Amino acid sequence: MSGMNMVQLNGAACRYRLDGDPRKPAVLMCNSLGTSHAMWDAQADALSHCFHVVRYDTRGHGGSGSPPGPYSLELLASDALALLDHLGIARAHVVGLSMGGVIAQCLGIYAPHRVNRIVLANTAARIGTARGWRDRAQAVREDGMAAIAATSPARWFMPAFAAEYGAIVERLQDALRGQSPEGYAACCDALAAADLRDDIGAIAAPVLVIAGDADPVTTVADGVALCTRIPDAKLVTLPASHLSNIEVPAAFTREVQSFLHC
Questions:
Q1: Positive or negative, the Cα torsion across 245, 59, 171, 46?
Q2: 148 found inside a domain
Q3: Chain-centre distance of CA 225, in angstroms?
Q4: Which helix (H) or strand (E) holds 210?
């Protein structure tokens, strides 16, 4: 079961990867919009010494299926729970970044009995605006992924990182260019409707919020707002932009390891 696997969940093929000892506590890692489970490579390597690490490609992403929409946040969260069910995992820590962080919030609100601790990285209870997401979905459906991929580095990373680590950036851009336009657009539609600001106060699990101090997508203020509303939450700010786990992997991993007692 270790390594890459496929399973059908809620009518969509789901590609997932397992690392570490399945007898140890589980950590579920949820990717951001436009990436795949591979975004967590550095963290999974470190966490697999302490945990059974479960990573997957959100529907519409990576090697998972991209069935026609509509997608909703509830569906994306249901996929995550179905994967845990398939693996026989009753409870897990959940680590999510950006869209993955919204999925993690949803699990904390509506499936508290399945969640231990939650890491919410570079995310918000409401990311962007409904109009902005709908416009992006329309643009991708009409013109494909090339334009989104071309402008993604400015959203993902600080300029100095993008300049120094061009190979990393290119790899992420290539993956984004190869993504299903409909799968990406359907996830944009899900984010357009996703607003958990009135609900996150119900999250009872301990929460670590990680914000990038140069993140133009989900700002430090968004992180502060999460901590204001979630009863047991603390904020850590890192010197990074939106994909902070890739931009400052060592610092990000240390914070997650400390929070999860690894």
A1: positive
A2: no
A3: 19
A4: strand 207-212
CATH number, domain at 92? 3.40.50.1820
Cβ neighbors of 51 (< 8 A, separation 6 or more) are 20, 24, 25, 26, 27, 93, 260, 262
* 41, 43, 49, 55 alpha-carbon torsion, rounded to 10°: -60
Contact 151, 37 (CB under 8 A): no
User: Angle formed by the axes of helices 99-110 and 73-87, to 10°?
Assistant: 70
pTM of the entire predicted model: 0.98
Q: How many domains are there within the chain?
A: 1
Per the listing, tokens 């939450």 go with: 233
pLDDT tens string 4-41: 999 999 999 999 999 999 999 999 999 999 999 999 99
Cα distance between residue 54 and residue 48, in whole Å = 9
What is the C-alpha separation between 175 and 129, in angstroms, rounded? 25
| Cα angle for residues 208, 226, 169 (degrees, 5° grid) | 65
**Where in the sequence is the domain holding 86, given as residue range(s)?**
3-127+196-259
Q: What are phi and psi of 70, to 5 degrees?
A: -80, 150
Cα(123)–Cα(104) distance, integer angstroms: 10
Length of the chain: 262
**pLDDT digits 0-9 by tens, 236-258:** 999 999 999 999 999 999 999 99
